[in-house]
Specification:
The complex is a heterodimer of chains A (594) and B (594). In chain A, the strands form five sheets. An eight-stranded mixed β-sheet of chain A has the order 1-2-4-3-9-12-10-11, with helices on both faces. In chain A, strands 15, 16, 17, 19, 20 and 22 form a six-stranded antiparallel β-sheet that branches. Chain A has 594 residues and is α+β, with helices and mostly antiparallel strands. Chain A contains twelve helices and 24 strands. Among the domains of chain A are: 228 residues, 3-Layer(aba) Sandwich (Aminopeptidase), CATH 3.40.630.10; 119 residues, Immunoglobulins (Immunoglobulin-like). In chain A, 26% of the residues lie in helices and 26% in strands. Chain B is an alpha+beta fold and 594 residues long. Chain B folds into three domains: 259 residues, Zn peptidases (Aminopeptidase); 116 residues, no CATH class; 125 residues, Immunoglobulin-like (Sandwich). Helix content of chain B is 28%, strand content 23%. In chain B, helix 4 crosses helix 13, helix 8 packs antiparallel against helix 13 and helix 10 packs across helix 12. The chains are: A alpha+beta (594), B alpha+beta (594). Chains A and B meet through loops of A and loops of B.
Chain lengths: 594, 594
């Protein structure tokens, strides 16, 4: 480890010199005092890397190209740690990117236990994209500097997909929206079943880039302005009093003259209901589309996972509500007790790292979801998976209680200096006549303000790195050889799993999802007479295999546990022991018979 | 009124007339065709009526064979996509050759009637037929190859026995007769005993009767991988008719990695999604809901359904009765359901009337043979059959009856048991023989013509059962000044309702709508677009009323659009206060004039 660290530092020092020289050349003409690097005049804070080959401001959001540019810059700056893949294209033809991050010179990248992390499957849940990009940025920069990160990238491979709904992400950034719109992908869909597609979306009537609310003065209205913050909030009138306004819904007109407003917007489905485990059609699960993986975005993600059977952990990022969610998504679905215990342990650790976050079970603590991604990862692929709902407004005043309307208005006025709101302005509506348009901006509510964003990103990443660290980590222990007679030996092989997650979860075993783990022995002058799993190492009880004794199949290698295998071999000379575990990796050890 | 009654009668007559024999002239012999022969026949079919028949591939098989789609109906794509449509899917299970032959024979009959039979011409001009004659040609090709081996799957590599080897132990033609048949091995660990009444058949030993098994019953082959299991990991793959989302058995060996995972199933799924005019589907395969009408139940809100909506069952019963009558059965036989079938998906998720036919089985052959004497003396459900095999009063009775039928009608189907010196079973009696591959799923070729004639009548009759909308009794009243009251009755002149109960629940069959070509401001009551409830068949109507203020024109055009029952347009003549329907061509011509 020390040797590697030193090497890395030397390499960094060299890079620094090169960059410094380049900078000097570039700035040669200017005789300004700041000829040296930013790092020379700043002092590192703990947390984010200080020496930055790729500078990113993590207190703002990036559109799809912006996120892609971060990945591309990282790939260019850290070619020895990254591969940049295009795993598919969206409905509108945007590339879906995956940055593969691992120490490529240490071990075979394809055989390391893999951590899959995606974000932003709901287009409007934008910080979910940043957290995945931040993870890539952090891992690349801290490799060789922090021992934990170095070990993670030596032992594991990260598949980081910041936005698997790039259409929805860009649509939210570049078109008028509200906090909760642009959740869908953008394949045209006939939501109101009138034979036309996407013909009546919201309309940004006042042209301010936001979809806000419409209100109309009405003596019988049920709403009135907030008494203390009239410009920020509308509140319901008391049951026994008249209000002053009628609320008319989100900004829009009846584009298709069918007597309804905003009833068939662009897209109109939910990519996180389109996965192939416990999938149900639209009349049971809204937005699930025609069949599992019918959409190019989910199909690309699934094909990528099928092509990477080493994936042993999965994380999806969403907003909001401060939750670490796990399956099942519906009552009565499969969840093996043994696997649930592992997930509980990991998410309880997450609750410690993520203030206000709660460890929850989808159907029980939130709502029923059929065909969600985390259910497919666990139920369909046997992979330990979580969904994090990032950000809660409890952060506004750092209180455990959910902030009231008044608290939120106070925060907008005193902390955001009024940013976050569109003041009410009059508008002449073709159907409603004189109305007013205004209300909360799309950035309010579901995404953090700039100064709280970086904290969300780092803490959530830390949880995912812990999850990744808990993936199976196999070590081949000493190979013990006992001489039974001339040229006849009993060989014991011990394989340790040094982490919490087994090589194959119970769900995986029950349904034979991954191949079994295989422990084998081979040598030029060796014949294997008998073999089996050691079930009691003191009484030397062995479950002998019926056939092919050179190759013992194990159902799993448990978390924080070891598996032992006995080979009875005849012969002499050198041997090689191999452990081939789809999710635990490929290990070999050689030795010689005495 | 008179007109309507006449039209209803016209459809009834048509169904009766199509029943008449003698429409078979000019049709090729009914045979089992390999891929090349099938393709040639389809080309010939297309050439015989190039303006009526289109043949195109919609995907390719693993072995690069084309998956043909036949579209029958005059006019362009647009015309065909508007007409009510019947979809027939055959050969979706690889061993279903008979379904392919029936579908092809029917197509040839139908097309040959286009110029010779005015009734057939009318059916063809008012209906679109979509036919997938063989969706799994690779598996079907095994029938024509040596050795002949029966399989339902597509040949995609798969580790069926979870030993981390793929397709390493399939059957072998040990006796070199070109057929993969069966082996019986005398072995005291076997579970079978010879049937005391029929030495060629084995029955399961019943330990409760003190019977000890003496024979093993295996498919013909060697233990190629030395694991003491025979033919346990043959070339595997996906049975396309187990790959659809309703009741999909995710972890079954033949179900695919997920729902709609294979290019052929995806092509079929996307085709039906793109052709919502399909109102009746018939799928040939192992599942059957025609020999016995399935039971229904009241669906529970937001829960996956386990049975047909009870409101739709009477319709299914009508089709079952028609089918059995056509075949010459007077009683229900056993039905059969399978997980993940295309037919169930089309009903349970897509809301269409979806029929499934197992066109031939030994049990059906036995029943039909008996129909001469005491019809349907022996029937009983599949479950009863299974329990009788397991040790009812007469174990093996059905199997003996079936063998007797084969002895009489197709003696070549059963191969006498002949002893074989099997290397895996030294010093044990091994015999090879039993039913030839495909013999129990496909009738002898000589019997195809009779079966095809019956299916041909049934399939053509399906066109008469589709829903078809028209304009019924309607009225226009001048109430003063330029104000008119308009009342239009939309009528269903077909048999099925415009939407099944489950079509409405599933929301996949969109409501019939009537659209007036008049600006929104002209309506004093009613709206431009009106959605109609389900309109029952056999003359059911839905009434729509408007009050309109039209000072500046003499006519109002309107269109009624149904997803399954076609489209009809009409004109309200305000001058004469008359309403009349117009054909599509008239409407288009007039529109061009505008």
């Amino acid at each position: 480890m020390m040797r590697k660290l030193r090497e890395t530092m030397t390499r960094d020092a060299k890079n620094c010199c090169v960059i410094g020289l380049l900078l000097m050349v570039a700035m040669g003409a200017v005789s300004a005092p700041a000829q040296s690097r930013v790092e020379d005049h700043t002092f590192p804070a703990l947390g984010a890397p200080h020496q930055r080959k790729v500078e990113v401001a993590w207190n703002r959001f990036h559109d799809h190209q912006g996120i892609g540019a971060i990945l591309a810059r990282l790939h260019k700056a850290f070619p020895e740690l990254t591969r940049l893949h295009v795993i598919g294209t969206s409905s509108e033809g945007r590339d879906i990117w995956c940055l593969e991050v691992t120490a490529r010179s240490v071990g075979d990248p394809d055989r390391k236990p893999g951590m899959y992390v995606d974000g932003n499957i709901h287009g409007n849940e934008v910080q979910a994209g940043e957290v995945v990009a931040y993870t890539a940025w952090y891992l690349c920069h801290q490799y060789g500097r922090l021992e934990q990160v170095t070990e993670l990238l030596d032992e594991r491979v990260f598949y980081l997909l910041p936005s698997i709904n790039p259409d929805g992400r860009d649509y939210w950034f570049h078109e008028p929206h509200r906090a909760s719109s642009s959740r869908s992908g953008l394949e045209p869909t006939d939501n109101d079943r009138d034979g036309s597609l996407d013909e009546d979306d919201y309309d940004d009537l006042d042209g301010d880039g936001y979809i806000t609310q419409m209100r109309r003065k009405d003596p019988q209205g049920r709403y009135k302005p907030h008494p203390d913050y009239p410009e920020y909030r509308m509140v319901r009138a008391k049951a026994d009093e008249f209000g002053q306004y009628e609320m008319l819904g989100w900004e829009g007109v009846d584009n298709d003259a069918d007597g309804r407003i905003n009833e068939d917007g662009r897209g109109g489905y939910d990519l996180n209901r389109n996965w192939a485990y416990d999938w149900q059609p639209g009349y049971i699960q809204y937005g699930s589309k025609d069949y599992p993986f019918s959409q190019p975005e989910t199909r690309a993600a699934a094909d990528f996972v099928f092509a990477h059977p080493n994936i042993a952990g999965a994380q999806a990022y969403h907003n909001s509500g401060a939750m670490i969610l796990r399956g099942p998504g519906r009552e009565g679905a499969e969840m093996q007790r043994e696997d649930e215990r592992v997930m509980e342990l990991i998410s309880e650790r997450g609750e410690r790292m993520l203030p206000y976050y709660r460890s929850l079970i989808g159907w029980k603590d939130l709502y029923t979801v059929w065909g969600g991604a985390d259910d497919w990862f666990y139920g369909g692929r046997g992979v330990v998976a979580f969904t994090n709902e990032m950000w809660t407004r409890k952060n506004l005043f750092k209180k455990d209680a959910r902030p009231s309307d008044t608290d939120e208005a106070e925060f907008i006025e005193r902390v955001l200096m009024g940013d976050g709101i569109v003041p009410w302005r009059p508008y002449d509506h073709p159907t409603y006549g004189p109305i007013e348009i205004g209300g909360l901006k799309k950035e309010w509510g579901r995404v953090p303000p700039s100064f709280l964003l970086e904290e969300e990103l780092h803490r959530n990443m830390a949880f995912t790195l812990y999850h990744a660290d808990m993936m199976p980590l196999l070590r081949l222990g000493p190979v013990e050889v006992e001489t039974l007679a001339a040229d006849l030996f009993r060989v014991w092989v011990t394989v340790e799993n040094q982490r919490l997650i087994p090589t194959r979860t119970k769900q995986d075993r029950i349904h034979n999802i991954s191949p079994p783990d295989i422990i084998s022995i081979a040598g030029d002058d060796i014949e294997v007479l008998s073999a089996g799993r050691v079930v009691d190492r003191f009484f030397k009880r062995v479950e002998a295999v019926k056939r092919r004794p050179h190759r013992v199949l194990l159902e799993t290698i448990g978390g924080m546990d070891a598996a032992r295998v006995q080979f009875v071999v005849k012969g002499r000379g050198s041997y090689e022991v191999t452990v081939d575990s789809t999710k635990g990796g490929l290990l070999t050890k050689t030795g010689s018979l005495p | 009124m008179a007109l309507r009654r006449m039209q209803l009668r016209w459809w009834c007559c048509l169904i009766v007339m199509l029943w008449m024999p003698g429409l078979m002239a000019g049709v090729q012999a009914v045979t089992y065709d390999d891929y090349q022969a099938l393709s040639k026949r389809l080309t010939a079919l297309k050439k015989s009526e190039p303006d009526l028949v289109r043949v195109r591939p919609i995907a390719k098989s693993r072995d690069q064979r084309k998956l043909w789609l036949v579209e029958v109906g005059p006019g362009g794509e647009e015309d065909r996509s508007v007409r009510p449509a019947v979809l027939v899917v055959a050969g979706i299970e690889g061993n279903d050759l008979v379904g392919s032959s029936l579908a092809l024979s029917w197509l040839e009959t139908l097309v040959s009637g286009y110029r010779t039979d005015p009734n057939v011409a009318t059916v063809l001009e008012t209906t679109t037929f979509y036919v997938f004659p063989r969706l799994n040609p690779d598996a079907a090709e095994h029938f024509f190859e040596t050795p002949r081996m029966e399989t339902r799957v597509d040949g995609k590599p798969r580790d069926d026995d979870h030993d981390a080897f793929i397709d390493e132990d399939g059957p072998d033609d040990l006796n070199g007769d070109g057929l993969i048949t069966w082996m019986r091995v005398e072995d005291e660990e076997g579970r079978y005993i010879p049937d005391p009444n029929e030495s060629r058949l084995l029955i399961e030993a019943d330990p409760l009767k003190g019977e000890a098994g003496r024979w093993r019953y295996l498919t013909e082959g060697r233990d190629n991988d030395g694991d003491e299991l025979w033919n346990e990991d043959a070339v595997g793959g996906v049975n396309f008719n187990r790959n659809f989302p309703y009741d999909h058995d995710l972890f079954a060996t033949d179900a695919g990695l997920h729902q709609v995972s294979e290019p052929p199933t995806r092509a079929l799924a996307d085709f039906v999604i793109g052709h919502p005019n399909i109102g009746i589907i018939l799928t040939y395969g192992a599942a059957d809901n025609l020999l016995k009408t399935p039971k229904g139940a009241a669906p529970e809100r937001r829960k996956p359904m386990k049975a047909l909506d009870e409101k739709d069952v009477p319709l299914y019963r009508v089709f079952g009765e028609l089918y059995r009558e056509t075949l010459g059965l007077k009683k229900e036989l056993g039905g059969a359901s399978e997980p993940g079938t295309f037919s169930d998906w089309m009903y349970f998720h897509r809301g269409r009337l979806s029929l499934a036919a197992r066109p031939w089985s030994p049990a059906l052959a036995v029943s039909l043979a008996k129909a001469g004497g005491d019809p349907n003396e022996s029937s009983g459900s599949e479950r009863e059959k299974r329990s009788s095999k397991k040790g009812g009063d007469e174990p093996g009775k059905e199997a003996r009856e079936e063998l007797k039928w084969f002895d009489t009608h197709a003696p070549e189907a059963f191969h006498a048991w002949t002893s074989f010196d099997h290397p895996d079973f030294p010093n044990q009696r091994v015999e090879i023989g039993g039913y030839a591959p495909f013999a129990r799923t496909n009738p002898p070729e000589s019997m195809l013509a009779d079966l095809a004639a019956k299916h041909s009548r049934f399939l053509t009759a399906l066109a008469g059962q589709l829903p078809r909308i028209g304009i019924g009794r309607s009225r226009c009243k001048h109430v003063g000044e330029s104000v008119f009251e308009v009342e239009i009755h939309v009528e269903n002149r077909g048999f099925l309702p415009t939407v099944l109960a489950h079509g409405e629940r599933s929301r996949e069959v969109h409501p019939t709508r009537i659209v007036m070509e008049l600006e929104a401001k002209r309506f004093l009551s009613g709206t431009r677009t009106t959605f109609l409830p389900a309109i029952q068949g056999s003359g059911g109507t839905a009434e729509v009323r408007w009050t309109v203020h039209v000072p500046d024109r003499k006519t109002i055009r309107f269109e009624a659009v149904s997803m399954l029952a076609g489209r009809v347009s009409g004109v309200i003549d305000l001058t004469n206060t008359e309403i009349h329907a117009e054909s599509r061509d008239d409407a288009e011509a007039e529109r061009d004039d505008d």
